Amino acid sequence: MKIEGSDFTGSRVEALVRALGLKNAEKMLDKNYLDADLYTSAVFKKIGLTEAQIKRVQRSGSLNSIRLTKTQKEKLLGRQLMAQNGVSWDQEEYKLIGGNLKIPGLRENDSLGVSRREDGTYQFFTAGMIFTRDDDAFDIYKNGKVGDTDTTYEQRNNTRMTAWKRDLFTNEYTSISFDNAFTSVDKLSPQITIGNDTYPGGTLISEYFKMHLIDSNEWHKENYGVNQVGVFTDSLLLNGQILNKAGYDGKSTKRTLYHPFGTGAGSENCFGPMSNQGVSGWNDPKKVGTGAYYFNEQLKLFKSWGLYNGYEFNINLQGKVHL
Predict the structure, then answer these.
(1) What's the predicted TM-score (pTM) here?
(2) Of 72, 132, 200, 219, which residue is 20 to 30 A from 119 by alpha carbon distance?
């Protein structure tokens, strides 16, 4: 078996524990893996113990009575993790099947991420973004108000954002709040009637949903000025549509993206950082104060955190989530 991004080949259970790290694998097992009663003689033989060693550990009841190599420890831990969680090896399909092996520490809407450190070890993490929407955000564009003359910059700047990352084994938590302007309400989609008023129907209104990064295509690069954009998924819209895993609502031909904006916040149900008031050239990432500049700063942060294309961010929308 070849572990992507590494030079390790070997048994699958050994590969799993080597990626997790012995200490992390022990935490997941939640019992002393050196207890000899957990294993059969056949397992001891498979990891290379001699008959004399097997008799010694069975007599003492502990694998502490012999000196195990690091590889033998990894194989034992891996086998016990698999057995304890109901995972088995399918020789015909040539893969691990069944069971319910979970990395600890995942909470509501979290996704598992894995990144390789410079020293060759792996970090298991989860990450996300918290958007806090202003209380009057839905009123900005109701009843057909969509122009820059009938809304103010302060109104269009209707959202705050905090990005975070958490190590699943150490629980180390890192967060950064961005104080530049953001928008999170739809401006340009067809209006729908709610009560006695009308509102653009594409605003995302789920408390929890997902987002993943993709490389920008030529249109994205030309129009947004950045090399990556985010794709929002799994959210309910104000008009009742639901975003699928590709970011489409099943009705519109446009995806719901995370991308930069100018001061006008011309959104069709997308989110993103806005340019500072009075700053032109909104899609120039090299110009300080533009939406593209702020977006690019976020991309640099995500890269430094080891967040990669396709990783599903935990998106939590707070404040005025829906009408």
Answers:
(1) 0.84
(2) 72
